[in-house]
Every structure is written in C-alpha cells, then in structure tokens.
Design a protein that fits this description.
By secondary structure, this protein is of the alpha/beta class. The protein is built from eleven helices and six strands. The chain is elongated, with a radius of gyration of 20 Å.
C-alpha cells in the first residue's frame, strides 16, 4: 500500500479554532473510534487542552471487540486518563455520558457556584467528532449544542499532522477518517483483508466463505466469487469487491472487529 500522508488545510484551521475556543470551556470530550483508539488519538492536542479535564470517549464500541476495548480502557486508566466506551446511537448513551460529563467538570462547577457564578457547564468536543457525516471532512465549522443541561461546543475532528506509523494511517483509512477519493481502494481492501485474517479469520469465512488465507489477493478474489462480482469473460470486478469489503467492515457486517490491541499500541495512549 502506498505511503499515506494527509493533513489538509481545514484540519490546520480546526486546530487553530480549538486553540482559541478551549478557553471558553470547562472540560474536553475527546471522541475516539473504539475500533482504532490509537490511530484516532491525536496527542498533539494535549498541549492545547492544557489543565482542562479531559474525558476520552471510545465511540462505536458496538462495532468493536469488547475485550480489546476494555483493555484500552485499562491502559487509559494506567496513564491517569479518564475514558469510557460508548455507542452514541444506543439507547441510554446520552444519559451515560451526561453523568460522566458532570463528574468531569464537577470540581470547577462547585468553585464557580461558591463565587456566585451559575451557568450551564460546557465542554469542547475534540479529536473525532461525536456526530459525523459519511465522509471524512464533512463538517468543518464549530457549533454550540444544548445537550442534557450542558452546552457543548462541537468542533471538526482532527488527525495527527503526520503518519510516522503507517499501520495507524491504514487504520484511519479503513474506518473512513481519510477521504476515500485520495486513496487506492484496491490497496485499502487488500490490506484490510490481511489484517482481519490475522485476528478474525472466522469472520471472513462466515461472510465470504474464505478458507485460503495464504495471500490477500486470493482472499480478495474469493470475495468477488462469493458475491458474484464478475465482469464479462469471467474477470473479477475488483472495484465492486473493494467497496463491499470496506463497506462490510465499516457497517459491522463482518462482526465486531478491533484493528488494534492495547498491548501493541499502549504507547500511543500514554
């Protein structure tokens, strides 16, 4: 797969925006993807957040491997960071997060009350956005949202400004955090198949009847055969095959898959 390097201008603008707006908030909600917490953790923001309390939200936990998600939560705790797993679309998610946000800003809120300052607590949503479009970079502006008694300043998501670790860069491509239009989707699909085969081969067998894991290409072609993606003359329709593989992963049709283990990527959490 070609080297991935992508940090468009709107992300630079988003970083500057957060630097200005963080002064207005009591705490920070850093929304990560539970399938790839290390890849979606932008440690460049730590300096920007300063002494503000931060709650890391591992969103889309319903699509991730529960054991791996819990292992990441343990790593956050070891590092002295507060984190919670969440599926934003699940019933009760708002109530769960409301309680955690209250705990996050309670100390500062109590100090303000003693000074006679009474106002709704507020928080800055950074890193990955809590509510996203279907494509990377859909939302590029900020917006204040009233939510469960809080004022939430929602900002565009940001990724690390460079991808020294190309494994993490690929993970961002798999989950859709990098614009598909600038990627070779054949390469993305091949690498995704290779990684899934290493950790969750049973899901590929169940979905595509793959039994031969000897090479990503053989798996890719089996996907095309099992789904009937064939062109005239019996050639494989790789374009449709790539779209199916990536879409099946992103929509959770393959099963609950985590791309990262806490053991391998703990350094990106600390």
């Amino acid at each position: 797969m070609k080297h991935i390097q992508w940090f468009p201008g709107h992300m630079t603008k988003a970083m500057r925006m957060m630097e200005e707006q963080v002064k207005l908030v009591d705490g920070v909600l850093a929304v990560l993807d539970a399938r790839a917490p290390a890849a979606t953790r932008n440690k460049k923001l730590d300096t920007l957040f300063g002494a503000k309390p931060v709650l890391y939200i591992l969103n889309k936990s319903d699509l991730a491997d529960d054991k791996r998600t819990d292992a990441f939560l343990a790593e956050f705790s070891k590092a002295g960071l507060t984190a919670v797993k969440c599926s934003a679309n699940a019933a009760g998610a708002a109530k769960q997060l409301s309680a955690r946000i209250s705990a996050l800003v309670r100390e500062k809120f109590e100090r303000d009350e003693k000074k006679g300052i009474v106002r709704p607590p507020n928080a800055l949503s950074g890193e990955k956005r809590a509510v996203t479009g279907d494509k990377a970079g859909v939302t590029r502006g900020k917006q204040w949202i009233r939510c469960a008694g809080f004022e939430l300043l929602d900002t565009p998501g940001t990724m690390p400004p460079s991808f020294e670790n190309q494994t993490l860069a690929r993970h961002l491509a798999y989950i859709g955090s990098i614009n598909d239009d600038i990627l070779d989707m054949d390469d993305v699909a091949l690498e995704l198949l290779r990684e899934i085969a290493e950790t969750y081969p049973q899901f590929l067998t169940e979905r595509y009847k793959i039994e031969d894991f000897s090479s990503p290409l053989s798996m890719y072609e089996q996907v095309c055969r099992s789904r009937g993606f064939l062109l005239k003359g019996g050639e494989y329709d790789y374009e449709r095959g790539a779209k199916a593989i990536i879409d099946d992963f992103r929509k959770g049709r393959l099963g609950r898959i985590s791309l990262e283990s806490a053991e391998a990527f703990a350094e990106y959490i600390r």
